[in-house]
Design brief:
With 291 residues, the chain is an alpha/beta fold. The chain is built from twelve helices and ten strands. Helices cover 45% and strands 18% of the residues.
């Protein structure tokens, strides 16, 4: 199972959970293969060219399939031409976190600080095609502020520098940022969903804390290279849906800040299409572009 993002990140963690369950059910070892870089493009290309026999899958997220097509003028892959969607597997908001050394304890204070120091604050992401990047660009656009994007080869690397104080702000996947926020190593200001999440009930949304209309939710899904036989697609989908309805899997996802989900291949394909259209407009409105 190829993961086009860095080891230790959310996609990697979720892939290992489902891979373990597949191994237990089928007696066939599932190897999680992290291939990070270029906003998920490198790993996606590896998966695209894998044999279409059902033995190589890809655990992807919306960055590759809904953000990259609008950011990169020449993309080497086309989601629905080169892949067979198997099932949606989860969704979660991002967490707006800052280094505790930053003199901002709310979204309003962060915006005011950025306005008084244009270009002095920065935000990290795992690359121009990631939701962390788009979250920051939408925040810049909506608040009318100038904060500088710092691109890393993976989200975990960006988070490490946020912890170290090399960057001040991040719109991070909740599973990797929430533990640090709970321990006090980071300060959580808001969640990016349209409504508050029960996992951190005391945190406001970015929208209610200062930017009305702001809403971003990440999602993850499993796909296979185009050409996998329909009976294999059906078998894989049945197993993925079964796994994501297991109580212990749903509990493990929830502990990470992710809501487990599943779907038919067709519903997942339709969802990818609609999300690509929606994020294309968001990217255009935010004025986001590849660095």
């Amino acid at each position: 199972m190829i993961v086009p993002f860095s080891p230790g990140g959310t996609s990697d963690t979720l892939a290992r959970i489902v891979g373990q369950k597949m191994t237990e059910a089928w007696g066939q070892q599932v190897v999680v293969d992290s291939r990070p870089g270029a906003s998920g493009i490198i790993g996606t290309e590896v998966a695209m060219h894998a044999p279409a026999d059902g033995y190589t899958l890809m655990h992807g997220n919306l960055s590759q399939f809904a953000i990259n097509p609008a950011l990169f003028s020449k993309l080497s892959y086309d989601t629905l031409r080169d892949f067979v969607p198997l099932s949606l597997v989860g969704n979660a908001p991002q967490l707006l976190v800052v280094n505790p050394g930053l003199a901002a304890k709310s979204v309003a204070e962060l915006i005011q600080l950025a306005k008084t120091k244009p270009g002095a604050l920065n935000f990290g992401s795992g690359g121009a095609g990631t939701l962390a990047y788009l979250g920051g660009e939408m925040f810049k656009s909506g608040a009318g502020i100038n904060i500088v994007h710092i691109s890393y080869k993976g989200t975990v690397l960006a988070l490490n520098d946020l912890l170290g104080g090399q960057v001040q702000i991040m719109f991070s996947d909740m599973p990797i940022a929430l533990p640090h926020a709970k321990s006090g190593k980071l300060r959580a200001l808001a969640v990016t969903s349209a409504a508050r999440t029960p996992l951190v009930v005391d945190l406001p949304t970015v929208a209610e804390a200062g930017l009305p209309g702001y809403a971003l939710v990440n999602w993850w899904g499993i796909l296979a290279p185009r050409g996998v036989p329909s009976d294999v697609v059906a078998k894989l989908n049945t197993e993925i849906v079964r796994i994501h309805n297991l109580a212990d899997v749903r509990e493990r996802y929830a502990a990470l800040g992710v809501e487990a989900a599943s779907s038919t291949p067709q519903r997942f394909a339709d969802y990818i299409k609609s999300e690509a259209a929606r994020f294309g407009k968001l990217i255009k409105d935010a004025g986001a572009r590849v660095d």
